[in-house]
Structure formats: structure tokens, C-alpha cells
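Board notes (copied after class):
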Amino acid sequence: MPVLEAGDALAYRDERLPATVYQRLRRGEIAAEEELDLHGADARTAESLLRAFLGDAQRHGIGCVRIIHGKGRHGSADVGSSGAPVLKNLVDRMLRQRASVLAFHSPPANQGGTGAVLVLLAPPKRR
């Protein structure tokens, strides 16, 4: 998987999600119901916060969330030895591994641009 740079958009769509819904997400037309700001967190803390946030969101039936990861431009802790933004790449990798994530995309600039990501979550499974 290629390493994302500061200005790169995060993008993923599961085949379960209709392309038309994904297009709405890309355009920022689906409102985030909850938000998590990871600015300033180290990778271990960010991973723990993200897991808990996504689990809670899905359990409560929240369909769309925004995660602010920053662009990795504000200090050595934000950028790995390769010069790539640590949190942005961590968020991308974690979201791709979760079965509950239907799609994600960096929002338009007025909603956080490439320093954030909108995430569509699958409805909670019925028991």
C-alpha cells in the first residue's frame, strides 16, 4: 500500500456501497453525526481512540463520522522517518481493515480537506 503524503486524499469504497452514495460522500453532501479530533495524539493513543470511537459510533447506529487527523505538517511527531504524515497513514490503514467501514473519503476543503476524512459506517448487525 503506498504511503500517503500531506496533500493526498484518503479514498476507499466497499463494493457493498452504491457508487452514487460514494459520490455524495466525496462531495461532502453526507453530514457527519460525530467527530473525533486526533491532532497532537501519538500513534498509539490515536489508534486506541480511533478503535473506541468507531466501535461506539457503530453500536449507536451512527452512519457518518468525521475524523480529523491533520496533514502532518506541524512538528516532528506528526511526520514519520520517511517524511510522511503518521496519523493520516494510520487512519487510512485502520479504516481499510474494519468490516464496519463501507467507505471513506477526504471531504471538500471547507469541511477539513486532506486533513480530515468522512467515514460511512454499516448499520449495526441485528442479533
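Comment from the instructor: The chain has a mean pLDDT of 91. The helical segments are 19-26, 43-59, 86-97.
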